[in-house]
Structure formats: C-alpha cells, structure tokens
Design goal:
Blueprint (H helix, E strand, L loop, with lengths): L5 E2 L6 H5 L4 E4 L2 E4 L1 E4 L2 E8 L24 E4 L23 E7 L12 E7 L15 H9 L4 E6 L4 H4 L4 H8 L7 H16 L5 E11 L1 H11 L9 E5 L7 E2 L3 H12 L11 H6 L3 H10 L4 H4 L9 E2 L20 E7 L15 H8 L10 H21 L22 H26 L5 E7 L28 H5 L13 H20 L22 E5 L5 E4 L4 H7 L9
The protein binds 2-acetamido-2-deoxy-beta-D-glucopyranose (NAG) (7 copies).
C-alpha cells in the first residue's frame, strides 16, 4: 500500500545512491532502473496516470505529466503495486497502481541505435477484469530473444483498474454517466491512457511510437478487441495480437445482473449503509483499506463470480462499446495487421468438473443478457424463445459422445468424469471463443482492410496459469486450455512452477512463438526469417482461410474449417447472445 517511492535528490548525488543502474529522463524526472540480465534493462512502477484516489477515485484516468519544477529521482527498480484485487497479497496492492513496467535491450546508446527507435510491444494482462498484474509478466526472455535474433524490441506491460473500481455499475453510476461523466469502463480507459502515454514518452526509452503492437490474453485481448472495434485504438498502435479473446458478453450498466453485482458489493461496505448521498459519493470517501475489505468480503474471485458469468466485465457505454460488439464495424485501416488465435480447449478451465447434465450448457445459453440491452418484456420474451430453440439445436449439434468433446482429440477418454463434462466444455469453447474469433476475422477485420494471421494453439504439454485455476482438475482433463499459451509466448516455461518439465518440443515451440510474435511487432508479419527456423505462417484471407496450428510436435498451417457447422450456428446472429 506504499505509494510509489519518490525520492528527492540533487542530480549530482544520484550515482552514489543508485550505483550504475540504467537511467531515463522525462521532464524533471529521472527514472533509475536495473538490469535483469546481461541484455535487458528494467524500469518498474513508471506512472502513466495520476493515482486514481481521493477525488480521482471512480474517475477517468488523468495522464501523468513530468514537470514538477523540481528534479525528482524515481526508484524504478521494482514493479509498481498491483491494482486492488483478491489474487495478490494485501501489501502488494494499492489504488495507486496505474503504472507500467518496461523491459528494454541494455546499452541502447552503445547498440546499433536505429535513428527512429525500436518496435514496442505493449501487454494487457488477463484475469477476467477482476485480477491480474503486470508484475506477473517477466519480459526478460522475450526482450533478450529480440536482441539475439537481431530485432531489438521494447516490452511494456500496463496495469489497469479491476472489479468494482475499474468497472463500476448500478443506478447511481449510470446517472453519473448520463450526466456526462465518463465513469463506465474505467479499466478500458486506463488501457487507452497507457497507450497515449506510450505515444508521448516511449521515445525517451528508445522506442518508436509509430511501431507499437498491443497484445494481450483473455480480458487483455478482449480489451484490445473492443478498442479496435470502436476505433479507440486509432493512432495508438499499428498492430495487435489477441490471444484467446472471448468469454462473456458486455452487459448494460443497469441490467439486473449488473445491479445485483453492484448491490452485493455495496452491501459489504458497512460505511456506505446509511449514507444520504449516492453510492459513488460514498465510495469516494472511503479508505483504500475499506475498499480492499470490500473486495475480499464480496469474494471477487473466479470461484465466486466467473462460474456464474462475470458480472465485472466491460459495460455498454456511449463511446467504447456503444452497442453489441458484433454490430460494430471498425474504420478502414484502424490497424494495419492483427494476430488472433485460440487454444484448442479454451473452456475446460471454466467448466465445473462435477457437471453431469446439460445444465451448464443450458445456463450458458439461457443466461444471455437482454437483447436489445433495454429489451421490453415482450422483446425479452421473444429472445428467450429463440434461446430455448438454440439450446435444443446446440444439444443436437454437440451430442453426448466423448470423442467429440473437449479436450478435443482425446477419443472416448472421460478422465473419470461424467461425459457431459467434455460436451459442456466443447460448447463453451466454440460459443465463447472460436465463434468470436471466426466472426471477428471474417466480418470485422478483413472488411476493414486489416491483414490477419490466426492460430490454434494445441501443444500437448501446455499447462494453465495456476492462479487462474479453481479447484483441482483431474490430470489430462484440461487439454490445451485457456491461458496455457502464455508461458510459450513469454519464454518463461522454465521459470514457472506450474511447468513440471520443459520438454524439448515445448521449448522449441516456445522459441518459434516468441519469434513469430517479435517478428510481427517489427514487420507486421510473423515470417521475418530471423531467429528459429519455422514454417511460413500464411495470411488469413477470405479466399484462403488458414491458420497456424502451434504444436511442438507438428506446427503447420491448417484450414480454418473445423466444426464449421457448429461454429457457424453460433455466428448466425451473435446479438441473440448479447454479443
Ligand atoms: C529502491 O527500492 C528498492 C525496493 O524498495 C530498495 O531495495 C532499494 O534500496 C531502493 N534503492 C534506493 C537507492 O533507494
Ligand atoms: C538470452 O538468450 C541467449 C541466446 O538464446 C541465451 O543463451 C540466454 O540464456 C538468454 N538469457 C536470458 C536471461 O534469457
Ligand atoms: C443503518 O440503519 C439501519 C436502520 O436505521 C440500522 O439498523 C443500522 O444499524 C444502520 N447501520 C449502520 C452501519 O449504521
Ligand atoms: C475462492 O478462492 C479463494 C482463493 O483461493 C478462497 O480464499 C475463497 O474462500 C474461495 N471462495 C469460495 C466461495 O469458494
Ligand atoms: C449430478 O450432480 C449433482 C450436483 O453435483 C448431484 O447432486 C447428483 O447426485 C448427480 N447425479 C448423478 C446421477 O450423479
Ligand atoms: C466413441 O464411442 C462412440 C459411441 O460409443 C463410438 O461410436 C466411437 O467409435 C468411439 N470413438 C472412439 C474414437 O473410440
Ligand atoms: C499434423 O497436423 C495436421 C493437422 O492437424 C495433420 O493433418 C497431420 O497428420 C499431422 N502430422 C503429423 C505428423 O502428426
């Protein structure tokens, strides 16, 4: 809970204090970082916005400026604190969390300093918009690799507000929004602010602001997707990589789901029980510790919330998500190129292992939010009739035969679970992830003239990020699940306790994936021929719908036609599902 350390010194004394740490100056600030390896320098906790506390709590981010009139030496040797959440220990979270961590090639000035600066990769973490932190992502191996392959690249990870502090909702909040305050989707506004800051200041770190690729996984990818669809990303990046975007649809700020989630949160803030003012005014007067208590007491974590649909995701608003995402058409060329992909068994991670009926499938389909968002009772009735019909057809398209379920390609093995487990996971994987990927590419990216590369990650040795796992899944039952590609992209397989053994095939695939990603950041194409020898990844076009199967035993281009009928069925009219 300590605010980022600000130390005031005269410039002449800093070297004796910090030794030979690398430095970067912006305005009156001098950031002193540290080396994380021979080739990589790190700057942590670099603020991009004013702390969103006191009067700025539940307000849009205010970009940080660096002219204070005093010389300030900023200790940037550590990650900044994480935004308030229940995943991270209490002493590592703070409301003063709007910071970046920056990893860059070491000794840039001695390097082949390219006049116009290095390509920049900006990471938005996943975690369902309720947990996550840039401190979970070590950029050292990725940047180190970028140096060795001759395309030195900067890695930046940005924090954004989460849960009730990032995505407030309910009637009072909606009233503030209606009165013109941009109080909705604060977490997404933080994403935008981070990208704006990078445009302004990344050159000071050796980066080229016109060569920014933004990438993210899960919620982080979803954030990128909506910023792209509503053109908010215009001028802030030229490329994007979306890993496993999908999940639950955005809801309106005052839907019954949204109101219930907000009311439950307010109910665990005793200080706000009897105030005469609005919820928002009351929250603005609380202490951070009282809010953290609220997160804990409201049990804002995957096990308590995600399984019943995530009530803290983005909301429909006026500018960032003005209507259901599937109805938005991005401007021509809003980005130049995109990589977008899914993992083979995305939804096994979210499928309750005790499922023994079609209940989960039914809940998922019938639980779709009102469509249109302000549906009248009769419109809602029509929608629910459609959804019942869709449910029937879905059960027919996904019969209860284990060899057709997820984890896919595991024959009739059921891992000791009821066969309905594989069936439910297959439906959620396709409805929640694959359908969105296919729709987004074919109906939104390609028509906007954005070149697309797509992938299917299927490595048999993949394991999920342990922090995102609830309960104790039966061994083998997750397949290549949600979040399991992250360690390959970051080159951190060997660092992670989840990964019991780094097989040679996994290690090689990880090298290839880092190369594809870094190549894309530098050239907007994954095939720059540098680094590992790897198969050519074909561009996805309307005439040639191909994607790259990323598998340590068999990385190869395949047709994007698997489960064509099933996935097309979900894409007939995504707005029925509120997407
Ligand atoms: C910078 O902060 C770290 C962690 O708080 C601390 O260990 C280190 O001594 C600090 N450096 C200086 C020069 O204060
Ligand atoms: C950096 O990359 C080189 C070449 O691949 C490798 O030998 C070295 O272990 C890497 N260092 C780090 C810290 O990742
Ligand atoms: C709020 O008001 C109710 C009813 O007047 C009362 O029972 C309750 O104790 C009050 N709660 C607090 C925290 O003051
Ligand atoms: C959810 O998980 C958290 C963290 O593992 C745990 O503290 C909490 O008790 C769990 N809550 C429920 C409702 O299972
Ligand atoms: C199915 O699961 C439910 C809930 O876990 C349980 O109560 C019920 O006994 C199970 N039914 C069968 C046939 O196993
Ligand atoms: C799986 O079981 C079904 C139904 O019992 C059967 O038709 C099919 O051949 C089996 N598939 C495999 C791969 O064993
Ligand atoms: C590699 O994967 C493709 C596509 O799934 C498949 O057709 C091919 O048989 C596989 N090759 C090997 C050697 O397993």
């Amino acid at each position: 809970m300590t605010p980022a350390l600000l130390l005031l010194f005269a410039f002449s004394t800093w070297t004796s204090v910090f030794g030979a740490g690398p430095t970067v100056s912006i305005g009156d600030f001098m950031f002193v970082g540290r080396q994380t390896s021979e080739n990589v320098e790190f700057f942590g906790g670099v603020p991009f916005a004013e702390p969103p506390i006191d009067n700025l709590r539940l307000k849009p981010p205010v970009l940080k400026t660096f002219s204070s009139g005093q010389h300030i030496v900023f200790n940037a040797t550590q990650f900044g604190p994480s935004c308030v959440q229940t995943l991270v220990p209490v002493d590592e979270v703070s409301e003063d969390c709007l910071s970046l961590s920056i990893f860059r090639p070491a000794n840039l000035e001695l390097d082949q300093a390219k006049g116009d600066g290095l390509a920049v990769m900006v990471w938005f973490y996943g975690g369902g918009f309720i947990v996550g932190s840039s401190s979970m992502y070590d950029g050292t191996p990725l940047v180190n690799r970028s140096v060795f392959r001759g395309t030195p690249t900067i890695f930046v990870a940005a924090n954004y507000r989460l849960g009730p502090l990032g995505f407030p909702r309910g009637d009072d909040v909606a009233r503030e929004a209606a009165a013109g305050s941009r109080v909705l989707n604060l977490g997404l506004q933080d994403n935008i602010a981070a990208l704006q800051w990078i445009q302004k200041h990344i050159a000071s770190f050796g980066g080229n602001p016109s060569k920014v690729t933004v990438f993210g996984e899960s919620a982080g990818a979803r954030a990128i997707e909506v910023l792209l669809l509503s053109n908010q990303i215009q001028g802030l990046a030229r490329g994007a990589i979306m890993e496993s975007t999908g999940g639950t649809p955005p809801i309106s700020a005052t839907s019954s789901t949204a109101n219930a989630a907000w009311d439950n949160f307010m109910a665990v803030l005793p200080q706000c029980a009897n105030t005469s003012g609005t919820n928002v005014e009351c929250i603005r007067h609380l202490k951070t510790s009282e809010l953290i208590e609220g997160f804990i007491n409201d049990r804002i974590f995957f096990n308590a919330t995600i399984s019943a649909g995530n009530p803290w995701g983005p909301t429909l608003d006026d500018d960032i998500i003005p209507s259901f995402p599937s109805t938005l058409k991005p401007d021509h060329g809003v980005l130049e190129a995109v990589i977008i992909g899914c993992n083979k068994d995305e939804a096994t991670l979210f499928t309750v292992q005790t499922v023994n009926s079609t209940q989960a499938i039914s809940d998922k389909i019938l639980g779709s939010p009102p469509s249109p968002p302000d549906a009248s009772p009769s419109q809602r009735k029509v929608q629910l009739q459609k959804l019942h019909h869709i449910l029937e057809e879905t059960l027919a398209l996904y019969p209860n035969i284990p060899s057709l379920g997820s984890p896919f390609d595991t024959g009739n093995e059921t891992f000791g679970l009821d066969p309905e487990y594989k069936r439910s996971a297959a439906v959620s994987t396709d409805m929640g992830f694959q359908a969105e990927r296919r729709f987004h590419i074919n109906h939104q990216l390609l028509p906007a003239g954005i070149s697309a590369f797509s992938y299917l990650f299927t490595d048999p040795d993949a394991v999920p990020v342990q922090d995102f796992v609830t309960g104790m899944p039966v061994p083998g039952s997750l397949g290549a699940t949600h979040s399991s590609e992250i360690f390959y992209v970051f080159g951190t397989l060997a660092e992670r306790p989840e990964v019991k053994e780094v097989t040679p095939t996994a290690a090689k695939l990880s090298d290839m994936m880092m190369d594809y990603w870094i190549s894309f950041a530098n050239t907007l194409n994954p095939n720059d021929g540098k680094g590992s020898t790897r198969p050519n990844w074909p561009e996805y076009t309307s005439n040639r719908q191909e994607l790259m199967q990323l598998n340590g035993h068999n990385t190869t281009a395949i047709k994007d036609d698997f489960r064509e009928r099933q996935i097309a069925f979900f894409n007939r009219d995504p707005t029925v599902f509120g997407y």
